[in-house]
Amino acid sequence: MEVVGAAVGALVATTSKLLCSCVSSKTNTTFNLHSNLAAVEQEMKSLTDRKKEVKRETEATEKEGNEIRAQVVTWLKDVEMLQPRVNAIEGQMFNNKKPSRCFLNCRKRYRASREVEETLEEIKRLLLVVEKFNDGVGSTSVPRAVEPVLGTSIRGQTTASKKLDEIKKALDDGVQVIGIWGLGGVGKTTLVKNLNNKLEKDSTQPFGIVIWATISKNFVIKNVQTRIAERLSLEVKTEESEEGMASRLYQRFQKEKKYLLILDDVWEKIDLDSLGVPGPKVHQGCKIILTSRLKEVCKAMTTDVEIKIEVLNDDETWQLFCQKAGDVAHREEIKPLAEAIVKECCRLLLGFMETSLYLIRLTTRPDSNNVAWFLMGDFLWTYVNCRTT
């Protein structure tokens, strides 16, 4: 009996210790659990807010065609994986509020407390990591929607202003590819530069980005690609092939809702795919303006509208010439020859105007005498003969 009594006593003592331990553990765990849950809720809210900020930054960076830092990608994945854990903990806590036996309830709360503590530590770690992203998640330089280009203003030129309005109307009417053609020097580039600069000043212009690229007669695809890539704030890789850059440009353009590509001085058909430009058939927000001396080139580029630029009339040419030359063009001894040059040369080839102005300005020099007259006369004679041969 003594042995049995001793065994029963030992069993009772052990059971009492377990019960006391359970009660004590339950009390401590419950206290820690509630405080940690409150901390998880508060810290998780901070983490979620930071995640939204980082996502906005990554979207802006990707839109510019730049890569996201690997550390940022990993951080975002870790935050995504953490959210289900937090949701599960909240659900488990709700279930644990139901009545149950002391022993089972104690065990569940202990495990839950450990899980909450580990989750809280992970949240705090991620909040520390995100502080390292304050200098950016990648290359976040945002290109200007429109960059101004240097060019002569067409203010006061009735004919050119009407043509500019015609181009703008074509853009507004939903035309996607516009060809501007006419003889060399007639003012196609000047006109399109004025369009570009008007868009730069227009806060309501619809394009996410306007890109200017000069093609010229013997153009090199890689050089044009480089110009476009720089405009898009896309990294230029020296050793990259034309195909590789075209692929990256193509992907970058797809991130723009609406863009305008201006191709100046086009001499032959350009394969937009080889260049890396998704054309209107692929990208509904794409619009292209090209200038060329030949209407056939515009047609080859499948333009929707071809706008011909004509020579200036005599009055407009003289006004433009006087704007450039200044008062010297009205001097009695200069005006007849200046008018002859304007009539014979400048109405068509505006490039000759700069030469004419230089010659006119020679007359203002004290030692000019008849030198400028001779040079101007010789210039005019040479040009007239060139046109008749």
UniProtKB/TrEMBL annotation:
<feature type="domain" description="NB-ARC">
    <location>
        <begin position="162"/>
        <end position="327"/>
    </location>
</feature>
<dbReference type="InterPro" id="IPR027417">
    <property type="entry name" value="P-loop_NTPase"/>
</dbReference>
<dbReference type="GO" id="GO:0006952">
    <property type="term" value="P:defense response"/>
</dbReference>
<dbReference type="InterPro" id="IPR050905">
    <property type="entry name" value="Plant_NBS-LRR"/>
</dbReference>
<dbReference type="InterPro" id="IPR002182">
    <property type="entry name" value="NB-ARC"/>
</dbReference>
<dbReference type="GO" id="GO:0043531">
    <property type="term" value="F:ADP binding"/>
</dbReference>
<feature type="coiled-coil region">
    <location>
        <begin position="37"/>
        <end position="71"/>
    </location>
</feature>
<protein>
    <recommendedName>
        <fullName>NB-ARC domain-containing protein</fullName>
    </recommendedName>
</protein>
<keyword id="KW-0611">Plant defense</keyword>
<keyword id="KW-0175">Coiled coil</keyword>
<dbReference type="Pfam" id="PF00931">
    <property type="entry name" value="NB-ARC"/>
</dbReference>
